[in-house]
Amino acid sequence: MDKYWLERTELLVKEEGLEKLIKSNVLVVGLGGVGSFAAEFLARAGIGNMTIVDGDTVDITNINRQLPALRSTVGKHKVDVVAERLMDINPDLKLTKINEFLNPERMDEILDSAPFDYVLDCIDSVTPKLCLIIAAKRRRIKIVSSMGAGGKTDPSKVMVRDISKTEHCHLARQVRKRLKKEKIDKGVRCVFANDIQDEESLKMTDGTNYKRSFYGTISYMPAIFGLYAASEVINYLLDKK
């Protein structure tokens, strides 16, 4: 592998750290505003093996916040657009694309398809998110889960905490409540922002793909969530692996 492009990274994490990242295998589920940034910055850090999952296509309403969303990519599959970017960053990346919305019954199959070191849950619908978290926990695979970036505007309030420590996030509250029914009340790392959500920005939907509503979102907040998630994974792999 030509590692000259990772010279600055190696100066910081040393050759041993870089080798850990190159040998790591990461799963990113959801390539919207959070997941697209997370996947790209994992690749830029030198992660050597990645599986990306999303069944959606780029919509013009994605342009305000999602990395793959451009006028020229509207209508294209997000997984294809993101994959092209990742391979342009690192042609040696061993990349698997899964172009589908992960239904609950598929979570087990995906998680058993490779020896993943870390899972990034960037799904914005409660039921699939829960299924992924539960499936990862049962396999004792490390997971970081993104909570709601919508309705939030203060980047200084973004943090990573255990699910039991989340606050002022409606999505996190729903996830916590349903995880308790599965006897899981801690042990899941979450990216969330603890400022109050703007309730006036809420819009209801038709419930397609398990999504019943969404909040208005400003350009930078999902990206910050994605970078926090990527940093959580990278720092874990460097320290623990």
Describe this structure in words.
The protein contains seven helices and nine strands. Helix 5 (126-138) links the parallel strand 4 and strand 5 (142-146). The model has no long low-confidence stretch (mean pLDDT 94). A seven-stranded mixed sheet has the order 3-2-1-4-5-7-6, sandwiched between helices. It has a two-stranded antiparallel sheet with strand order 8-9. The chain is α/β, with parallel strands linked by helices and 241 residues long. Keywords: Membrane, Transmembrane, Transmembrane helix. InterPro entries: ThiF/MoeB/HesA, ThiF_NAD_FAD-bd, Ubiquitin-activating_enz. The chain crosses the membrane at residues 218-238. This is tRNA A37 threonylcarbamoyladenosine dehydratase.
Helical stretch tally = 7
Note the run of SSEs as H and E: HEHEHEHEHEEHEEEH
Kindly state the number of beta strands. Answer: 9
Q: Report strand order across the widest sheet.
A: 3-2-1-4-5-7-6
Q: Catalogue the unreliable spans.
A: none
Characterize the largest beta sheet: strand count, sense, and whether it forms a barrel.
7 strands, mixed
Structure class: alpha/beta
Q: Using the CA coordinates, give the radius of gyration.
A: 17 Å
Q: Tell me the span between the first and last alpha carbons.
A: 21 Å
Q: Given the C-alpha coordinates, what overall shape results?
A: globular
Mean pLDDT: 94
Q: What portion of residues belong to β-strands?
A: 15-25%
InterPro entries: ThiF/MoeB/HesA, ThiF_NAD_FAD-bd, Ubiquitin-activating_enz
Keywords: Membrane, Transmembrane, Transmembrane helix
Protein name: tRNA A37 threonylcarbamoyladenosine dehydratase
